[in-house]
Amino acid sequence: MNVELNDSLKTQAVKEHSSVSEILSKLAKEYLEKTK
User: Fold this and answer.
1) pTM of the model
2) What is the mean pLDDT of residues 18-35?
3) Rounded distance, CA 3 to CA 21, Å?
4) What is the pLDDT, as a whole number, of residue 31?
5) What per-residue confidence (pLDDT) applies to 19?
6) What spatial distance separates the first Cα and last Cα of the chain, rounded to whole Å?
7) Which of 20, 28, 31, 32 makes a 20 to 30 Å CA pair with 2?
8) Structurally, how many domains does the chain consist of?
9) CA separation (Å) from 18 to 1, 23, 24, 34?
10) Whole-angstrom Cα distance, residue 26 to residue 32?
11) How far apart are CA 26 and CA 20, in angstroms?
């Protein structure tokens, strides 16, 4: 039970981290384009 819960939390954290990094990369690209 605990192992399954930990795995699900890990996968969720990874998904959230990837989504956050994608959003940050998009914002960075937009910022660089505006500053050109």
Assistant:
1) 0.48
2) 91
3) 27
4) 93
5) 87
6) 53
7) 20
8) 1
9) 26, 9, 10, 24
10) 10
11) 10
